[in-house]
Amino acid sequence: MIKKLSISNILFFVITMVIFVTSLTQKIYFVEGSNDSDAMSGFLALLLGWYYMFDLRVIPWLANPLLFLSFIFTSTYKIKKAKIVGIIAFIFSLSFLLFDKILVNEGGFEKEIIGYGSGYWLWVFSMFINVVGIFISEYLNSDN
């Protein structure tokens, strides 16, 4: 027998994805000495985040594949794994706040982060909604 995804699972997936995709269209952070138009967009950060692969600054970027892994676990009814991976993704997304400088070019030049844009907060919120959705869906779909 093939299990169907519940309405709550689908609803939280759609909400999470809408927020995540919206975050890609917004500015993520601002650095010293730049104006609004120089701020990093969410889409560019998603594409270039792997650049930090051998640096601790890759940790926030790793929230992206973890988010999608939690979707896979949820859709295959591995709820405990989905919860763990979702929580780790959320924590990893918040870890970006721990970094005070960011690489701004391929020459290795760094600048101080002076602010966070709506794209960053929407991205973090999408991670949060994913975790909340997993817990709520589990509760609603339990046989209580």
Features:
membrane, transmembrane helix, transmembrane, elongated, alpha+beta, 144 residues
Give the terminus-to-terminus CA distance: 22 Å
Number of domains: 1
Number of β-strand runs: 4
Name the quaternary structure: single chain
Q: Rg from C-alpha positions?
A: 17 Å
The average pLDDT value, as a whole number, equals: 85
Q: Extract low-pLDDT stretches.
A: none
**Strand line-up of the largest beta sheet:** 2-1-4-3
Instruction: Return the string of H and E elements.
Output: HEEHHHHEEH
Shape: elongated
Helix run count: 6
Q: How much helical structure, as a percent, in the residues?
A: 55-70%
Strand content: 5-15%
Secondary structure class reads alpha+beta
Biggest beta-sheet profile: 4 strands, antiparallel
Description:
The chain is an alpha+beta fold. A 4-stranded antiparallel sheet has the order 2-1-4-3. Strand 3 (101-103) and strand 4 (110-116) form a beta hairpin. It starts with 6 loop residues before the first helix and ends with a helix. Helix 1 runs antiparallel to helix 6 (118-141), helix 4 (63-75) packs antiparallel against helix 5 and helix 5 packs antiparallel against helix 6. The chain contains 6 helices and 4 strands; from the N terminus they run H-E-E-H-H-H-H-E-E-H. It has helices at residues 7-24, 42-48, 58-61, 63-75, 79-94, 118-141; strands at residues 27-31, 40-41, 101-103, 110-116. The chain has one domain. Keywords: Membrane, Transmembrane, Transmembrane helix.
